[in-house]
Design a protein that fits this description.
The protein has 167 residues and is α+β, with helices and mostly antiparallel strands. Helix content is 19%, strand content 45%.
Length: 167
């Protein structure tokens, strides 16, 4: 009987700890509308960003993507090499940047699967800065030039899907 009581109390303790941790996590999240104004620090360039809780990694509109010392098609051999690219926001403002390739990985989108280069960029929002992994993608045809994915949201943000006003 004492053994069962110990198991029950232990389970209750674990359960209450999880509830308390979830309560803290939920209370620490800042709920944001579907789009927000951010800046890419390295480029001194503002973007209206769509918050995309379905995307694991963030994606930004990039053109003229050139890998220094490229050896053909994108591959894991490119990781660590320098890449130059031009960021273009929704107003058509352009900034040229260079960065080290952090990853080369396949990305599945609504219409295809492709290999993209990933770099770290610094996102500024409300005085906070986070360096996040971002894939470089030609988003010229897309209305949203920057998608902030789960890798940015996990820094303490949640999305209010009923609100879609840019801050």
């Amino acid at each position: 009987m004492l053994r069962w009581l110990g198991i029950a109390l232990g389970g209750a303790l674990v359960s209450s700890t999880l509830v308390a941790a979830y309560g803290w996590w939920a209370s620490e999240r800042r709920v944001l509308p579907g789009t927000v104004q951010i800046a890419i620090a390295e480029a001194d360039l503002a973007f209206r960003a769509r918050l995309d809780s379905g995307a694991v990694v963030s994606s930004i509109n990039a053109h003229e993507i050139t890998v220094i010392d490229a050896e053909g098609e994108p591959s894991q051999r490119d990781v660590g090499k320098w890449i130059s690219f031009v960021l273009v926001n929704e107003r058509g403002e352009r900034r040229e940047l260079s960065a080290r390739i952090a990853e080369v990985r396949g990305v599945r989108s609504a219409d295809c699967r492709e290999v993209r280069y990933h770099v770290y960029l610094t996102v500024e929002f409300r005085g906070q800065r986070q360096r996040i992994l971002t894939n470089l993608n030609d988003r010229a045809a897309a209305a949203d030039k920057f998608l902030l994915g789960q890798n940015w949201l996990r820094h303490g943000y949640a999305v209010d899907i009923n609100e879609d006003a840019t801050e």
